[in-house]
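Subject: sequence -> structure tokens, single chain

Hey, anyone have a minute? Need the predicted structure for the following. Not urgent.
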Amino acid sequence: MSKKVRLGISVGDINGIGMEVIIKTFKDNRMMDICTPIVYGSSKVSTFHRKALQINDFSFNIIKSAKEANAKKANIIDCWKEDAEVTFGQSTETGGKYALASLEAATEDLKKGEIDALVTAPINKDNIQSEEFNFPGHTEYLTDKFEGESLMLMVNDNIKIGVATNHIPLSKVANTLTADTIFGKLKILNKALIQDFCITSPRIAVLGLNPHAGDNGLLGKEEENVIVPAIDNAKSIGINTFGPYPADGFFGSGNYQKFDAILAMYHDQGLIPFKSLSFGEGTNFTAGLNVIRTSPDHGVAYEITGQNKADEGSFRQAVYTACDIYKNRLFAAEINENPLKPAKGK
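Reply:
Had a minute. Here:
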């Protein structure tokens, strides 16, 4: 339990604020008390950002592999040797290319156990698209690479919101939702609350899809035909699930504070209230996988790149969350281990 977390960090789009929030986070030496940061990127790119930000009292420890990481310093691995053109605030093919190079290197080390957890700085979901990356975002990419079924879970000390459907067009949400899909997400969410956040007997609220949660079928049948059966299935296996609740009144009345987590039906239904209530302090956690990945709750923010205006609070919180979850999983594994191990040779 006292082991310091070896934390891998992908740099995201080199033209965005990813490198800025990374530098600002680990400029505080106290961060090295909770983790050993290993950034997958380019020392030249980091120097370019640092000089533009006029941050002169920080530098990375350059290493060749995660095994060489200095536990008392912020480390960086050069994932490419060539010079990469940084164009602050611009979406470029180069930005996508090196965001993927960083992510691939970090993912490979996560697979090999060279790092304990991964924090991803923001990517541009458009310019990163290629033959190697044909996914709507980090969540889907990592789900394809690792074991388990994933759930996008937005996390804050005061609120946790998962989404039943990820990055899909709103026009496809209703046809994508099934009772089995929602039931599966509820199982992932319940397990994550217990294993990753040490919450005993968590209470989960489920939102409706339609206005007023369908108003008894007047405004849509999805609640009656899809969502309620999923809730009943969850209850039948001991998951404390409630709803469906109309989303507007649920958040407007403060009812969300009575639950440990909420399952929204689609992306914006969950992320708009989450970011309204905790922007800059929230974390995106990919629950359900056999590995740990978190990220800040913001995007590349091209409009302020290179201007020393980015707030590192959410990225720092993503680091804290990844480290906490890693330690919570170790604790869960310890308490669930069979205390009556057979003797050697038996």
